[in-house]
């Protein structure tokens, strides 16, 4: 890449970061909401009591990884599609193709900004969970980071696929919402994956966020995440990325 193109791409990255920082809704839902939800749940007294059915763990212990995944889902399905489809509808992507900045640079900037914000949100969830409710830190930090990065990649790839198959902003909103609620269910927002009935729990771990929830939980308990769960995350990322590349249109 030439120096001019590199400088232009960095300028796009800075611009997208500033635009994201100026959008209160995105800041709240991606960065703040997962921690707010986890805090509200942690204030429920029964959620802070050890449960023999959970192996002596507390419900709030299970919801910290869930809140981490929720940040990734918000970034991929609620923040990315409206922005990119809006750029396409307004012809911004088409006009970029005539400048030193290629549309791919804008997509890369979106992925970088949203990925970084989601990971910052994950750190905030873990920190508040530890400070406010005594939730244990991951016993296997390297495995936790690996599972988190793979889950973030899968979430952003899913968001990119929604952008690819949506011709308009309204379509992106509708498709994103249709995918959003099943994603939250498989991540364990309503019922933690660890407490689901056996067959349902097994099936859910074949989804990206179910596998992510199981992998993060294993790392928290001090075990290396199952290679099966990590493999599911990697395969979903590859498949979703391939679909996004195949169907994405700049105009």
The strand count comes to 0
Give the N-terminus to C-terminus distance in angstroms: 24 Å
Mean pLDDT across the residues is: 91
Number of helices: 10
What is the beta-strand fraction?
Answer: under 5%
Q: pLDDT below 50 for ≥5 consecutive residues: which ranges?
A: none
Task: Tell me the major beta sheet.
Answer: none
Total discrete domains:
1
Structural notes for this entry:
The protein is mainly alpha-helical and 251 residues long. The chain has one domain (3-247). Helix content is 76%, strand content 0%. Helix 6 (141-165) packs antiparallel against helix 9 (208-220), helix 6 packs parallel to helix 10 (227-247) and helix 9 packs antiparallel against helix 10. The longest helix is centred in the first third of the chain and has 31 residues, at 59-89. The protein is elongated and about 65 Å long. The model has no long low-confidence stretch (mean pLDDT 91). It comes from Streptomyces liangshanensis. Residues 25-251 form the ABC transmembrane type-2 domain.
